[in-house]
Amino acid sequence: MYRTVKATSGRQIFQPLHTLRSAEKELLPGFHQFEWQPALKNVSSSWDVGIIDGLSGWTASVDDVPADTIARRFRYDVALVSALKDLEEDIMEGLRQRGLDDSTCTSGFTVVVKESCDGMGDVSEKHGSGPAVPEKAVRFSFTIMSISIRADDEEDAVTIFQEQKPNSELSCRPLCLMFVDESDHETLTAILGPVVAERKAMLESRLILSIGGLMRSFRLFFRGTGFDEKMVREMEGLEASGSMYVCTLCDSTRAEASQNMVLHSITRCHTENLERYEIWRTNPFSESADELRDRVKGVSAKPFMETQPTLDALHCDIGNATE
């Protein structure tokens, strides 16, 4: 029995079923060998890892209630390797176009990864025969935005790959799918906590991967710019969008923002939010609830995801209004 598959080129290819199966295996994370130097902390060195339980890697403490949800994900490094192998031809073509000698370019590659996470809305089962799960789903995904290389004798890095359609579903790769409401801070923390830990480990190591028949070394940089405001508030432990503290990046209240549209600056960072959460939790100055809330400026839960302080939608709107 013959089936057909559409290659990335869009051509129809007729193949026997077993050939298609093996072709599919190559496309899924967990097929390609790689290694990290130094080895990733707290992450297994095995590379042939397929789909895993979304909660694996979460070390529950005594007072944590086990998260009651279904989540499935790839291990972050395994998924990134699969994405890079998909771009193998583009990387080689980029080296050729830039006139770089393929055999000398084995180290110095820099990969910028955009992370995205958002709720997928109501996914409840309409006829009610399956397992009882939360009726909302969240997807965490990533996109390889650019790959550049700095040659030994050059000062500036040369970009050899740039994603032309960074917001297309073709370049956006799902990493983790979970049945959870995006405003359920605790469950999100339990599921995405291990993802964040893996990412942090990757920042301190180099990926060694065969591209074009040679082992090459990659450094990875992550940009959390694919989160909307609601998701950033959730991950940074801030009050929801109805809060009097209007912004995810500064301490402006609604009243201040309406009075002053010019003097807005990015003042918040992840570590400061963590410090404010500790003040909220411990109340070291024995203040009343209102005084304490005024001190922490809208921080209400423990943040768990590092977000880059880049301009958010609200500051853009304020800037446009000023113009």
Helix content: 25-40%
Number of strand elements: 11
Largest sheet: 9 strands, mixed
How many domains is the backbone divided into?
2
Number of distinct helices? 9
Domain V(D)J recombination-activating protein 1 RNase H: 111-243
Domain V(D)J recombination-activating protein 1 ZnC2: 245-307
InterPro entries: RAG1, RAG1_DNA-bd, RAG1_pre-RNase_H, RAG1_RNase_H, RAG1_ZnC2
Protein name: Recombination activating protein 1
Plain-language structure description:
- The structure is a single chain.
- The chain has 323 residues and is an alpha+beta fold.
- It has 2 domains: 28-226, no CATH class; 234-322, no CATH class.
- Helix content is 29%, strand content 24%.
- It contains 9 helices and 11 strands.
- The strands form 2 sheets. Strands 3, 4, 5, 6, 7, 8, 9, 10 and 11 form a 9-stranded mixed beta sheet that branches.
- Strand 7 (136-149) and strand 8 form a beta hairpin.
- Helix 7 (270-282) packs antiparallel against helix 8 (289-296).
- The protein is globular and about 65 Å long.
- The model has no long low-confidence stretch (mean pLDDT 83).
Helix and strand layout, with pairings?
Elements: E1 2-6, E2 12-16, H1 17-27, E3 35-37, E4 52-53, E5 71-73, H2 76-86, H3 88-97, E6 109-122, E7 136-149, E8 158-162, E9 173-179, H4 185-203, E10 206-211, E11 214-227, H5 229-235, H6 254-259, H7 270-282, H8 289-296, H9 313-322
Parallel strand pairs: 6-11
Antiparallel strand pairs: 1-2, 3-10, 4-5, 5-9, 6-7, 7-8, 7-9, 10-11
Task: List descriptors.
323 residues; alpha+beta; 2 domains; 9-stranded mixed beta sheet; 9 helices; 29% helix
